[in-house]
Design a protein that fits this description.
Layout: E1 11-12, E2 28-34, H1 40-52, E3 59-65, H2 70-82, E4 87-90, H3 99-107, E5 112-116, E6 129-132, H4 135-152, E7 159-165, H5 171-186, E8 190-197, H6 202-216, E9 222-225, H7 228-240, E10 255-260, H8 263-270, E11 276-279, H9 285-296, E12 304-306, E13 311-313, E14 320-323, E15 326-332, H10 335-339
Parallel strand pairs: 1-3, 2-3, 2-4, 4-5, 5-6, 6-12, 7-8, 7-9, 9-10, 10-11, 13-15
Antiparallel strand pairs: 11-13, 14-15
Helix pairs in contact: 1-9, 4-5, 6-7
The structure holds beta-D-galactofuranose (GZL).
Amino acid sequence: MIATAVLLCGCSDSRDINKDNPINRELITIGFSQVGAESDWRLAASESVQNAFTPENGFNLIFDNAQQKQENQIKAVREFIDQNVDYIMIDPITEIGWDTTLEEAKEAAIPVIIVDRRVAVKDDSLYTAWIGSDFEEEGEKACAWLKAFLDAKGIKGRVNIVDIQGTIDSSAQIGRTKALEAAAKRYYNWNIIGKDTGEFTKAKGREVMEKMLKTYGDAIDVVYCENDNEAFGAIEAIENTGRHVGENIENGDILLISFDATRAGLTLTLNGNIAVNAECNPDYGPKLVEMVNTLENGGTVPHDQFIEEEIFSAKEEIKSIYAGGERSDVTLLTQEFIDGRKY
Ligand code: GZL
């Protein structure tokens, strides 16, 4: 039995939530099931939620880290139901397998808000709202940037790409992979020579990159890392072989694309190790507080809404890109911009 530790933020962070721990009904109790702690992005997203749902703001937060296992998320949600929390929030590790659990929450008349990644359920009324990223658009922006970059350099020949995917069947992986595969169909000279999941972690990203280098060696021109932590691992693996991470793919460099735009990821983007970084905004906390307060006051919230996101690079030649039917400015990175980032 993991002892229930009530952290300073007034949230308990335990898998076996203590049923004897009486809920303070003056506060709105939120049961939050988080994917895990697999990446810098995930830590930032958890911090955003814990900084927002505080007793000072009128909340009691029960926060559960599922350690990247859906069965742990389902167990936590059932415990939230037993505790009769006021709201359940879930960042679902994968999209499938949620119907029964959400039906149980509906029977208990507890509103559910899905955060970040999505659930694929037969009946969308099983959850009150979803707020998250447009992962396919993130991928479209990254691919549009690569296309503009290759055009600016006059590279028309074959470009061999490996895809270090995220957690398979997670919305982020589904969207980012789909965008790359669509771009590879659209541009005759783009060639995806390999893909494998890096599970959004540095260790697995490095392991996959090592395997890809052994298999494809000098043939690799571009690595499409589906999050920053995979890119951190990929850079280590590439540099261990003596190859250079950079933009001169015509001279043997390996160009890296990444997602999340964490502080560490943006630092590597500023110094050119990562060529372009598509933001995945982790700052859900304040938006979720606003949504709960609206609901508490009898208001309604959009059933589905996207969180705003940008795309970053240090390469001045690409100032804007055209993706997902819209033009997006590319934010040119500076150190002070990175220093000023909340997460
Ligand atoms: C995306 C999020 C992904 C991040 C990864 O919204 O679900 O999961 O891109 C994280 O860093 O592990």
